[in-house]
Amino acid sequence: MRGLLLVVASALFPVALLFAQEVWDQAAESEVNTELNRPELIKRGRYLAIVGDCQACHTRVGGTPFAGGRAMPIPLLGTLYSSNITPDINTGIGTWTLEEFDRALRKGIGKDGRNLYPAMPYESYAKISDGDIQALYAYFLFGVAPVHDTPPPNKIKRALSARWPLKIWNRLFVPSEPFERDPRQSDTWNRGAYLVQALAHCGACHTSRGLAFQLKAYDETEKGFLGGGPVLDGWEAYNITPDPDSGIGAWSAEQLTQYLKTGHVNRLAQAGGPMGEAIQFSLSRMSDSDVAAMVTYLRSIPPVKGKARIPRQQRGTPATEVVILRGTPLGEERNPKLKPDGARLYLGLCASCHGVDGTGSKDGYYPSLVHNSTVGAEDDHNLRQAILQGVRRTVDGEEIMMPGFAGALNQDQLKQLMTYLRGQFAVPENKVEKPAASAR
Ligand code: HEC
Ligand code: HEC
Ligand code: HEC
């Protein structure tokens, strides 16, 4: 069979060449695009691709940037593989016109007219400006080397695989106009608003979603914007509005800037999981002025009030000798459900880096788990993921690494450990301080 195919194929080869030439000519005809092959535009596009974090999704683990194939689990649907967006003629976007590229980014429609799943964050990209779309196009078509690589086929449940309902979804939910500047606000504010809402798509993770999985708010004028997102892939993106208790209203501008640039502020928060990736591939590589603009905007949006009454990063007290020696969190001795295993697991697995008392290393490289937003959060999703998967991030050539403990803990042990961590390093100070004083 294969032999026969070869024969047919070689017989058709000259025809194929002609055909290929034809495709070339057509592509050349339908694109005014080579006009955009300009060094300064490509350079701008390269920077915008960093801001848009295209690499994080469009690269498989250990693969060439932008060649796609990264598995993305989609709730209810199955697994989707990101597309090859290098300019390869056959497997990438090498024949795409500017209009087609624009339609994919801002309308969620692929070259062949099929609707893209919103795992590609076109709900946010819909607000990208015309000029930035051009620059991105110039970069991807003329500034990226083509890679011949076909992503694996999607594994989507057949009953749910029809893409046409997305047409309706798009019409209902996807913003139809690019970002519009607010003349009452400064240039810095407007730049920050544009980045946060559109290219840097913070809302895609940090804003809650409705029944149809649509974003509930697209900008600061709508209720709930950046007020905390759903759990995606095990991780929760917190409320990052200026509410002092549920959000990050208690953070200074410097702290927020440092977090966005490095993913680490000791005694406050570290970035693991998807946020770690956003910092590594995107935020840490953005210009100082763009980060400053985002900080300005983020600190100005309406606060979203949640259930927290004490900021997550202000919870907890260091463990005292009594806790350490007896292996039982203070004040919990009377809880019959608690076994002392949690504290012992902590001493065995975590204390070498995070300190016996939980305050981390002196230089802060190993962060304090007291006053730590992940330990102190209302829900324990991110704490669980951090323990299971660890943390890995490279910023400015420096690797930050915590090993994952998925293989070392069974479910019961994980629960004991988390109960200890949350009991000791996260309960509001006043609840722990009293028994601590009486125990001495
Ligand atoms: C959060 C993950 C994510 C990010 C960030 C992302 N993409 Fe995508 N993108 C996807 C996925 C997944 C698909 C495939 C969707 C589908 O098949 O329905 C896709 C599809 C595409 C397509 C359509 C390709 C085709 O062959 O149909 C283009 C073009 C594209 N992305 C460009 C970009 C650019 C440019 C950026 C950065 C500005 C970007 N994407 C950022 C996940 C992402
Ligand atoms: C792909 C999803 C995703 C995107 C996009 C994203 N974040 Fe996050 N973000 C998260 C997750 C998940 C966490 C929690 C990380 C952890 O606990 O280690 C987080 C944490 C944070 C925190 C720390 C909050 C705290 O109390 O610890 C800040 C601040 C933040 N993000 C700001 C932003 C900004 C600004 C943007 C856009 C430029 C953004 N994020 C884009 C998922 C995302
Ligand atoms: C080999 C040293 C090491 C060990 C052992 C270790 N950690 Fe970590 N931990 C780190 C480093 C490094 C970070 C990341 C610091 C950063 O992001 O800048 C971290 C971060 C964390 C965070 C914050 C994660 C986030 O996403 O916000 C938590 C929570 C945490 N560790 C808990 C634990 C627990 C619980 C254990 C024991 C099961 C443990 N660690 C064991 C080094 C370690």
Automatic annotation (TrEMBL):
It comes from the Bacteria. Residues 40-144, 187-302, 337-425 form the Cytochrome c domain. Keywords: Cell membrane, Heme, Iron, Membrane, Metal-binding, Repeat, Signal. Residues 1-20 form the signal peptide. It is found in: Cell membrane. Pfam families: Cytochrom_C. PANTHER family: ALCOHOL DEHYDROGENASE CYTOCHROME C SUBUNIT (PTHR35008:SF8), BLL4482 PROTEIN-RELATED (PTHR35008). This is Cytochrome c. It comes from Microbulbifer elongatus. The lineage of its organism: Bacteria, Pseudomonadati, Pseudomonadota, Gammaproteobacteria, Cellvibrionales.
